[in-house]
Amino acid sequence: MKLNGRRESTNVDDRRGMSAAKAGGVGIVGVIIALVMTFMSKGSLDLTDIISNVGQMGNVTEQAEGGREFTAEEQELAKFSKQILAGTEDVWAQEFKKIGRTYEPPKMVLYTGSVQTGCGNGSASMGPFYCSADQCLYIDLSFFTSMKQQLGADGDFAYAYVIAHEVGHHVEYLLGTLGKVHQQMSKLNSTEANKLSVRLELLADFYAGVWAYHDNEMFGSIEDGDLEEAIRCAQVIGDNYLQEKARGYSQPETFTHGTSKQRMKWLKLGLSTGDITKGTTFQCSDAEL
After folding, report:
1. What are phi and psi of 97, to 5 degrees?
2. How far apart are CA 250 and CA 243, in angstroms?
3. Cα dist. 288→48, 159, 265, 283 in Å?
C-alpha cells in the first residue's frame, strides 16, 4: 500500500507495554488459530489443550508494569495501523454523509497481552476484535505475526483488511444492524445463531472492501499485489479452510464467519463496487450467500 505522507488517526489509545487484568473473554480469529494449533499437534480436540494453546499465545506478548522500548518493526506496525484507521475515518465520514448520517469513528486500543474492555477482559489470543459496548476496536499487534506464521497470510493490505473488517463491525453498530442481529441471536439455538453470525461477518468483509475501494479513490493507495493479499487472507480465514486444515473435514453448522468462498465473494464485491447498498448479506438466500 502507498501510505507515504498519510495522516495518522488520533482516535488511538496506546496501552502497549502496560500491565493489564487477567485475560478472558470469547475468542475470535485468535481462538480459531489456537484450534488449528491443537488439531495439527494432537489430531484431536481436547478442551484442556485448546485452553493451553490460547494461554500460551496470550503469554507471549504479556508485558510488565512500566512498559518497554518497542522495536522498529513494532513502531512501524503501530504507525501503519493508525494510518489505516485514519483512512477508514475519511472514507466512512464521506459514505455516511451520502446517506444523511454523521459518522462517529471508533477508538482503536493498542495493547499487549491482555486488556480491560467494555465487553469484559480481552486477550491477545482473541485476535483483533470490536466491542460495541465502548465502541472500540482492540488490537495486539503481535497478531499480525501470528497471522503470517500460523495462516500464511501476510502483506500490508492483508493487515489493513483485518483492521477494516473490525471497523466494518463498528459501521454495523452505527447503522443498527449489529445490535438488532445480536438480539435475534440471543433467542436462537447455536446452529441458527451461527447462521446470523456468518451474515454479520460477511457484511463486515463487504464493508472492508467498500473502504478499500474509496480509500484507493481518495489516495491511490492500492499497489500491484495488494488485492491478492487481501483475498488470500479472506481465503485462509474461512471457517471451512481452518477446520479442514485442522482436522481434515469441516462442520458447516459450526461456521460463524463464513466459508473461504463466501468471504472472498463479499470482500471482492465491496472492492469492485464501493457501493454500501450492495451489502445484502441479510437479504439474500443461503444459496446466494
Report:
1. -60, -35
2. 5
3. 38, 28, 11, 10
Q: Which long-range contacts (CB under 8 A, 24 or more apart) does 26-29 make?
A: 26/126, 27/54, 27/125, 27/126, 27/127, 28/126, 28/127, 28/128, 28/129, 29/126, 29/127, 29/128, 29/143, 29/237
Amino acid at 59: N
| Domains of the chain by residue range | 12-278
How do beta strands 107-110 and 114-117 pair?
A: unpaired
Give the integer Cα–Cα distance in Å for 174 and 138. 18
Predicted TM-score (pTM) of this structure: 0.82
> Can you spell out the DSSP letters for 187-242?
TS-HHHHHHHHHHHHHHHHHHHHHHHHHHHHHH----TTHHHHHHHHHHHTSHHHH
The per-residue pLDDT for range 79-134, each reduced to its tens digit, is: 999 999 999 999 999 999 999 999 999 999 999 999 999 999 999 888 899 999 99
Cα distance between residue 262 and residue 233, in whole Å: 13
Beta bridge partners of 123: 114
Output the nine-digit C-alpha cell for 141.
499487534
CB 54 within 8 A of CB 27: yes
Three-class SS of residue 142? helix
Question: What distance in Å separates the CA atoms of residue 41 and residue 243, rounded to the nearest whole number?
Answer: 14
